[in-house]
Design a protein that fits this description.
Layout lengths: L24 H6 L45
The structure holds zinc ion (2 copies).
């Protein structure tokens, strides 16, 4: 069993409800590194904790809202 790094409950994929089990110790260690995205091995989507809804997408926390992509429009 792997505990969620954020809420410390058993890590379950919110998309397919599969309990997340890392294939090897290296993958397990990636869980503690927020910059590394974790993909569910069952549904192959970014793992989202079923309990706290935190996505393991490798993006920093507290960055809600839109992105500031530069848009070039010449008309
Ligand atoms: Zn969680
Ligand atoms: Zn899944």
């Amino acid at each position: 069993m792997v505990a969620c790094a954020y809420c410390e409950r058993p890590l379950v994929c919110d998309n397919c409800q599969a309990e997340y089990a890392p294939a090897d110790p290296e993958t397990y260690e990636e869980l503690s590194e927020p910059e590394v995205a974790i993909v569910c091995p069952s549904c192959e989507k970014v793992l989202v904790c079923h309990w706290c809804k935190t996505p393991y997408d490798g993006l920093p926390e507290g960055d809600e809202g839109g992105s500031n992509a530069p848009e070039i429009g010449i008309g």
